[in-house]
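Before we proceed, please read the two lines closing this message. Tell me what the token row says about the fold.
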Amino acid sequence: MLAIDPATKLSFNRLISNGDLVIVYERHDNLKAVTVSESTVLQNRFGVFKHSEWIGKPFGSKVFSNKGGFVYLLAPTPELWTLVLSHRTQILYIADISFVIMYLEVVPGCLVLESGTGSGSLTTSLARAVAPTGHVHTFDFHEQRAGSARDDFERTGLSSLISVRVRDIQGEGFPSEFAGLADAVFLDLPQPWLAIPSAAEMLKQDGTLCSFSPCVEQVQRSCETLQNSFTDIRTFEVLLRTYEVREGKMENLNGDNNGSNGSLPCKRRQRSNGSYAPDSIVSSVMARPCGEARGHTDYLTFARLK
């Protein structure tokens, strides 16, 4: 995903190479992650696409199949990776992720502690935010899940920015080696209040914490514990409503091709069944809410170390 220059520069290779991870965009609701291999082909309903023809093209290119169908080859940004990654657990989506990174004040050079890793959706965006000199240490109690996340970070080219460890943060707390060094801590745990005292020890003065909880009862108990060492405690619920913007055709019954509401009505041709035919069909760009709306996902509780 991101090529890290040892000389502390964050660079991104704009041309596709053999072995690169590419997000293949078939349509707005169908994306897939594909590793480019010169001897491999991609087959879908649009035809057969040769990987060898992708190499050397810039990300964002439109490529054609043997049948004339096409797909787009997109760079695997954290936003797109969130849409295609394997869901080993419930994941954070773009609205929550952007909110978390802003309120945790994560910037290049930060050291961030995260528990648990889960599917790695947030971890990927945290890594981009701390690059090129920062680091994300993420912990998960489930060994197989942590291993799968580690493989994903290798695949997306972020392994130099992320360290994955197996540890029960609720029971053991964070490793003492990070005491007083963390700029921010993120908790995605069933009982976050058990890890809050340890998180307080890890944070720098004025450091920030965020706890992700799906139930308000978890929020209430977490806030009670946070009051011991934290201030500026706030809880948010982020709801996102997306719109589809597309071109459609409308009947112009006024005979005014400019679509002016103030135009005078014109005569219309009467059909044989007695109804009236429109004067013309006009094209218009329309925006309407998507049919499937994502409801409540979680509560985000933020606090600052006293």
Observations:
- The helical segments are 78-84, 94-103, 121-130, 143-155, 169-172, 196-202, 216-226.
- DSSP finds seven helices and 17 strands in the chain.
